[in-house]
Design a protein that fits this description.
Elements (H helix, E strand, L loop, with lengths): L1 E5 L3 H14 L3 E6 L2 H8 L6 E4 L8 H7 L5 E6 L5 H6 L4 E4 L4 H20 L8 E6 L2 E6 L3 E7 L2 E6 L3 E5 L2 H5 L7 E5 L2 E4 L5 E3 L2 E4 L2 E4 L2 H10 L4
Parallel strand pairs: 1-2, 1-3, 3-4, 4-5
Antiparallel strand pairs: 6-7, 8-9, 8-12, 9-10, 11-12, 13-14, 14-15
Helix pairs in contact: 2-3
């Protein structure tokens, strides 16, 4: 399993890395000492698990989880037992109170392995009909049917509905793996569209409610395949 360590204390990060290497089942891809750098990397490089400290310069580990575009497994590593309730709220795999022993570390990895097997053996579920996005300090539910398209804005994306536009910290690349693929499709490096909302296509552009959206050469063939052309 691929993992990342987010920990501002170098000695603690080095110990966690040694535990990962000793386990033989974890590959440490990177170590970050602050949330901003970790978030930038993780939204571009999805991983399996984060060993996450809570208190770090500038932002907390929970701030990272709030802004992350997907949900990897998380093992909290902190010296503050008062964060146990928050850990429960965020559905983390385990809570390792520093300093922890290697034996305690292996127990957390065993929990992770059990959860991974249960997830693989569970029957597939019907794709969700909605998503939740974090915007303006709150979680907002958007029904798939209401979303016209999603547009990249650098480190942010804009969800456009007929009634309103919502901006949230995310990337088109990360969202491409999270949205309902039966309903949504990436048509350009900067756009994901709701296929059922396309009004017409002209040359290398499509139109949704009068908005012109480019179709890249790399995606044009697949777009045409997905449309019901008679």
């Amino acid at each position: 399993m691929r993992c990342v360590i987010v920990e501002d204390l170098q000695v603690a990060a080095d110990y966690t890395r040694r535990c990962c290497e000793k386990s033989g089942v974890l590959e440490v891809e990177a170590h970050f000492t602050n949330v901003a750098d970790a978030l930038q990397y993780l939204n571009l490089h999805p991983i399996d698990i984060i060993f996450l400290d809570v208190e770090m310069p500038g932002a907390t580990g929970f701030d990272l989880l709030d802004q992350l575009a997907y949900k990897p497994e998380v093992i909290l590593t902190t010296s503050k037992p008062e964060y146990a309730y928050n850990a429960f709220e965020y559905h983390v795999v385990d809570f390792l109170k520093k300093p922890f022993t290697y034996q305690r570390f292996t127990e957390a990895i065993q929990k992770l392995s059990i959860k991974k097997v249960e997830k693989e053996e569970s029957p597939s579920t019907t794709p969700s009909t909605h998503i939740f996005i974090k915007t303006d300090g709150k979680l907002v539910r958007l029904n798939n049917e209401d979303i016209l398209y999603i547009e990249s804005m650098g480190d942010y994306v804009k969800f456009v509905t007929a009634e309103k536009k919502y901006v949230t910290h995310n990337t088109i690349k990360a969202l491409e793996e999270k949205v309902n693929k039966d309903q949504f499709m990436k048509v350009h490096r900067s756009y994901i569209v709701n296929l059922s909302k396309i009004d017409d296509i002209r040359e290398n552009d499509l139109f949704i409610k009068g908005v012109e959206i480019p179709i890249s050469k790399a995606h044009r063939s697949e777009v045409m395949k997905r449309l019901h052309i008679i």
